[in-house]
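Batch job 17 of 40 flagged for manual review because the log was empty.
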Amino acid sequence: MAKIVGLPKLSPTMEEGTLAKWVKKEGDALAVDDLVAEVETDKATMEWRALDKGVLLKILVPEGTTLKPDQPVAIIGNAGEDISALVAQASGGASAPSDAGPAAAPESGSRAPVSGPASGSGSPAPVSGSGSGPGPGSASGSPAPESGRVAASPLVRKLARENDIDLRTVTGTGPHGRIIKRDLDGAEHGTASKAAAAAPKSSATFAFSGGASGSFERLEPVRQPVSQMRKVIARRLTESKQTVPHFYLTIDVDAQPLLDARAVINTQLEESGVKISVNDLIVKACAIALRRVPECNASFMGTELLFHQVVDISVAVAVPDGLLTPVVRDADKKGVAAISAEIKELAGRAKNKKLKPEEMQNGTFSISNLGMFGIENFSAVINPPEGAILAVGTVRDEPIVKDGAIVAGKRMRMTLSCDHRVVDGAVGAKYLAALKKILEAPISMIV
């Protein structure tokens, strides 16, 4: 018997999702566990697989539609069934939410990233806007997109940016003129650049020293709706800074032994094609230091403190829509080469939004590395309920005194942000001392 199928809730934290791609088409047979569609959430693009067998009789929403869980998306049943009543029911009773609605609120234990990007993860990426306007199946009288604003999903906006398409030149065939993925197929590439060149301009006169003046053309600002991921990041950042009592401890490390160790390891691994980074060694060192100072491997949970018996390191990774924190599980027990391979694999899938929710949850300590951008020192925001996060700066050339003489040295500054409810100043200082000792004598990682 035919039935209306709602958008499945693909993770405990999913409050809404964008139907990014239909894998099956109308008339296709479905078996249990067949891939039906890909759904884009605030954290990842996830797979929707069939729970029952049947035939996909009707697709109720086009690609690019943003919906809340359980809102009608398809009708599944037996071939040849009359589904006219179900189609009328779905179109008359479903109302897709606006992308500009409330941000998804992760449940306890699920955290959106709140710190800077990690080494090897790429640069902080521009925010991807999400469209406004209801999805298909909306009741009559639903508001159309506000004047002057292009209605399109985050996926469509991402594809438009990648292909240099100005969405203002595209005619949307979705509900209320919403632009969907297939609308981009015939769009002219390069229209975004042309639109920027022809953007509204205003003239302003500026006074220079000496009384000279000149007239300059000024482009109007580009407005983008806030993406779901950015909404969650903004909320989590605000919660962390307002509710977690941060304090900061900074230490300066002699980085030369670490660089020497990296060179030796990479030479040994040259034939295998594996190449480790300084950040890989830092992740390993942090994990060992947490074993030596387990008081820092803790979380404040309101009525109790959790002292974790595992060392799971969250590594901040920049992605096109914001930031994710994939977790390296049991980092203290893994070799540096294994950690390096895992970080590369997780970071790659993070950028493609292919991480599973459980791969981004329940870390016990975070690392954020901006050293590749030349940043010498910064303070990162704690990722609750973790008790601390380490911010890593660049390796810098600096004169140092060695055996009474001034010589060239390599230094690296790191700042530990601590939650004072669970990590006291002396505990944080003890942890940094242990970490410094490991980094300045890398052989101790394997002894």
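Reviewer: the log was empty due to a logging misconfiguration, but the result itself is present. Residues 154-197 form a domain with the Dihydrolipoamide Transferase fold (CATH 4.10.320.10). Unflagging and moving on to job 18.
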